[in-house]
Amino acid sequence: MIIAVDGPTASGKGTIAKALAKHYRLPHLDTGLLYRAVGRQVFLDGGDPDNAGDALTACTFPDGLLLDPELRTEDTGGLASRVSVHRSVREALFERQRSFALQPGGAVLDGRDVGTVIAPEAQVKLFVVASVEARALRRWKEMQERGNGRTLAEIENDLRLRDERDLNRAEAPLRAADDAVMLDTSELNRDEAIAAAIDLVERKL
Ligand code: C5P
């Protein structure tokens, strides 16, 4: 069974994907982490994330980089969204994601194009959305806990920029697959969102 969980930044897709993987005892891949590693590697190389050549070179990042806590920062998220517009980068990361999806026994993958490009044959495709206000508030609370003092308005602005880039790029823009089920988490807390996701998966099985 392949479960594809796509959606915009801070929609809750990562939390949901992790919980589904645990519930169904399946391996999980956060595909955004691969793009974050490429963004981080470009930065470490002193390259330009908007330059396709620099971004492609960074795709040969060492596996150990996936464990770098810096990958989780907003800055690296911004770099990831810039390197991810290049077709060569998406192609370079394709096989790794594809083979993860096809491993015997199945897998859960979350990202932007899992249901449309990486594993269009996935039995279950969830498209997780939430209002930009709800997503900004979640990010803000997370950051407060980590002692990061960015304002709600700054975070909301960043989210809008990233959404725009992910939605309007030519290569694999963020969109729901025709056979995806929508899950709006704006009004749901963590446990409610997970319960709703499991319920949707159960109906597909
Ligand atoms: O999901 P996350 O915020 O970690 O993703 C960081 C960036 O990587 C996204 O803004 C998006 O531009 C890019 N990405 C992508 N395709 C994916 C996963 C992430 O283009 N499958």
TrEMBL record:
Keyword terms, alphabetized: ATP-binding, Cytoplasm, Kinase, Nucleotide-binding, Transferase
Statement: the UniProt record of this protein carries the keyword Hydrolase:
no
Subcellular location per the Swiss-Prot or TrEMBL entry: Cytoplasm
**Domain Cytidylate kinase positions:** 3-202
Q: What is its EC number?
A: 2.7.4.25
Q: Give the reactions, separated by semicolons, that this protein catalyses.
A: dCMP + ATP = dCDP + ADP; CMP + ATP = CDP + ADP
**CDD domains, sorted:** CMPK
Tagged with keyword ATP-binding: yes
Give the matching InterPro entries.
Cytidylate_kin (IPR003136), Cytidylate_kinase_dom (IPR011994), P-loop_NTPase (IPR027417)
Gene Ontology MF term list: kinase activity
Q: Which residues bind ATP?
A: 7-15
Q: Which domain of life is it from?
A: Bacteria
Its family remark reads:
Belongs to the cytidylate kinase family. Type 1 subfamily.
Name this polypeptide is given: Cytidylate kinase
Q: Which gene encodes it?
A: cmk
